[in-house]
Amino acid sequence: MASIAESAIISNPNLKISTNGDMTAVDEQLSAFLTSVRRHLHMNPELGLREFQTSRFIRETLEAQGLEVHGPLATTGLYVDIVGDHPGPLVGYRSDIDALPIADAKDASYKSQNDGVAHLCGHDAHTAMAVGVAVILNAHRGKMHGTARIFFQPNEEGIPSGAPLMIEDGVLDGMSAVYASHVDPTLIAGKFGLVVGAVTASADRFRVLVKSDSTGHSARPHQSIDTIWIATQIMSAMYQLVGRVTDARKAAVISICRLVGGEAYNVIPAVAEFGGTFRCIDGDDRELFKTKIEQTAKHIGEGYGAEVQVDFDFGAPAVINNRELIGHVRETIVSSLGDEAVYNIPIPSMGAEDFAHYLDHIPGALIRVGTAVSPETSYGLHDSQFDIDESILRPASQIMAGALLRYLSRHAQN
């Protein structure tokens, strides 16, 4: 990782943020500052719970802006509290800091310098925007009725993920609501995606192991327990669960993505294994799928004489956006950028976000930030060519800082 001393990020620690007028009155140098933050992180990605240099960089960047940084939490997590001049509640803003175990294939001066690791889900941008929110709010303490906690979470991509660890270490203590944002390469830069209710699905992993006591000859499958054939029967039945044991009007998907069997072409293996994910919007369906996957696998497998083992790794629940919190963001966007900057999300994503864990405790809202302006910035999340339009960093930071101010003002009056 490039040394922090060599980075342009903290070469100008005295950002001049205007406090006149509304939240759009921010000096132009903020754009360059946030772009350099994002590019440094993009060049120096680290995997979940190993983000030690990333955490150090975030700490020093924020401290250079005069902020007191607390942590670590959850191994590499951090937070800053921006305390307003007026009394009020505590509201949070969360970003994630980990990268993916994928090689960066794009041709850019700021491409990943760490082999096989890259920020291909936008967490570098999320972190830069969170830094921007902290810097903007720090310059507007005089308008703040309460405290904003800006926190930086590790290991969003992992199972188990970093959110429960941050919660266990107390990041939500005293907090009444929490916001987050996520870049969206399917949305034009300058647009912000909003929806009340479900914005992402739950995501849980399953593994099914089909076992017999011995291998068999491919010429005489009737004399053995054919684990491959049994596994295919289980998989076929599992694919039919959606819309048969659940209401077809509720979004859900089961995907089998891993299949492991024997090595020889003429030997029926003693063990076959497969696995994948099941995702749904409805919390009751989540528990139902777990039950039905296990029952289906064991019923079919044991019916043909195989021993079947089913294991689960439970990920994040669905993100359910709070109506009031989305309303604060909508008002902020419209007052700053106009109605045309709002994109009303028609259907939830079947992707998952561990931000959902925070919403098991307090109300929250996840906002989509459009990042596409060209083919180069329209690759999907987790694509090896993924990139963003960096011009969105400053306005996204302004909008989220404004939404936090609006929340604090409204709740301080109640």
List the helices and strands and how they pair.
Blueprint: H1 29-43, H2 52-64, E1 69-73, E2 77-83, E3 86-96, H3 123-139, E4 145-153, H4 162-168, E5 175-188, E6 192-194, E7 197-198, E8 204-211, E9 216-217, H5 227-239, E10 252-260, E11 267-268, E12 271-280, H6 283-303, E13 307-314, E14 320-321, H7 323-337, E15 342-344, E16 364-372, H8 393-412
Parallel strand pairs: 3-4, 3-5, 5-16, 6-15
Antiparallel strand pairs: 1-2, 2-4, 6-16, 7-14, 8-12, 8-13, 9-11, 10-12
Overview of the structural elements:
It is a single chain. The protein is built from eight helices and 16 strands. With 414 residues, it is α/β, with parallel strands linked by helices. It has two domains: 292 residues, Aminopeptidase (3-Layer(aba) Sandwich); 108 residues, Alpha-Beta Plaits (2-Layer Sandwich), CATH 3.30.70. It has an eight-stranded mixed sheet, with helices on both faces. It has a four-stranded antiparallel sheet with strand order 10-12-8-13, with helices on one face. Strands 7-14 form a two-stranded antiparallel sheet. Helix 3 crosses helix 8. The longest helix has 21 residues. The N terminus is likely disordered.
Main beta-sheet annotation: 8 strands, mixed
Question: Could you say what the CATH topology of the largest domain is called?
Answer: Aminopeptidase
Helix run count:
8
Overall average residue pLDDT? 93
Give the C-alpha Rg. Answer: 24 Å
Uncertain segments: 1-13
Global morphology: elongated
Q: First CA to last CA: what distance?
A: 48 Å
Task: Compute the number of strand runs.
Answer: 16
